[in-house]
Structure prediction request, 270 residues.
Amino acid sequence: MILKLPGGRPSGRASDQPAAGTGHSGRPKRSTTRLWLLVLAATTAVVAVAAGTASYLLARPQTPVATQTLRPSGVPASISTKLVNLMALSPLPHAAAPAFTLTDQTGHRLALSSLRGKAVVLEFMDPHCTDICPIVSQEFVDAYRELGPAASKVAFVAVNVNQYHASVADMATYSRAHQLNTIPSWHFFTGPTPGLRAVWRAYNIEVSAPNPNADILHTSAVYFIDRQGRERYLASPMVDHTRTGTSYLPIRQIHEWSHGIAVLARSLVS
Prediction:
């Protein structure tokens, strides 16, 4: 289950996703179970949603996006209200993004601070996910392509949430399988479990992994970090499921998400 609480960040657990919660400037947390519950804060409004399935969080309202009119202040005018609601987008208070140093899919040990000067799009992913992570990965690849010349000023980053599959090879295999390695500035970070847990806590990402064969339940959130290393926006990835449990998202919404990611990233480097 994933909870999104006031404060602009998710909290709760879900397989293969992050959620926003309270504390630490409103960063996300995740909750366990196949039921995703979202309490979405947009200024003073809160929308609660529940949807279920195993491996990833569905932190999305069931009310048609077109009927929603909520728009938090501080979101670029280039992002339509419809897209704000689709992404469950909220501004963050420009606090410094929590620092970490981990190893990426190429075996290079890097600090988040080494990406200063670029806007950073940060997600938390499971390299063995077959649910929402591949959908978010496609959105990242499409957003990178849409950025055009501005792409050189944006880094796409993920932190591993699967302690049982935490090798550099796991990150590299996933990156190749989903064409993330076509993004020059892509970094899928991993490391020893204590180090990963410290990053999860810092960003309020709650992870439930009872054993190597269980679904990884974790919070679902995408952070947008500016070139000075400050958190600026938080978005909540979404996915739907068929009656048999297969995850999917309509192509139109994948395109809208990709566009939203690109527009937000561009706004941070222009």
About this structure: DSSP finds five helices and 16 strands in the chain.
